[in-house]
């Protein structure tokens, strides 16, 4: 549906009404409302013709949805080895997963605060 912008035409009509009444101040809302009424009389809305919509076919819709789901399930996703380690093998042989973070030595010296 095409939406027409009638604001400029209504604005000009309100300005003509304002001049016709002697350019009074403080009545712009009344002039604007009168311009809207006159514009509606001059340009009545036309009825919109509704085209017949094609009937919904359930079989085609289900087939289309199944195809979308099939593509979503079988599309490979990016894999982040940094976050999750190595991906396990799909053929039965399990690979050793790398630790996600470097191991911290338990005997590492701890820095002490020496401010005093």
TrEMBL record:
Domain of life the protein comes from: Bacteria
Q: What is this protein called?
A: DUF2934 domain-containing protein
User: What InterPro entries does the database record attribute to this sequence?
Assistant: DUF2934
Q: Which organism is it from?
A: Aurantimonas marianensis
């Amino acid at each position: 549906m095409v939406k027409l912008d009638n604001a400029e035409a209504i604005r000009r009509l309100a300005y003509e009404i304002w001049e016709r009444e002697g350019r009074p101040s403080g009545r712009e809302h009344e002039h604007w409302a009168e311009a809207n009424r006159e514009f509606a009389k001059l340009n009545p809305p036309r009825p919109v013709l509704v085209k017949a919509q094609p009937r919904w076919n359930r079989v085609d819709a289900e087939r289309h949805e199944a195809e979308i789901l099939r593509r979503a399930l079988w599309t490979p996703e990016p894999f982040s080895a940094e976050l999750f380690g190595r991906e396990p093998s799909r053929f039965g042989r399990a690979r050793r997963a790398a630790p996600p973070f470097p191991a911290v030595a338990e005997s590492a010296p701890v820095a002490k605060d020496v401010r005093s």
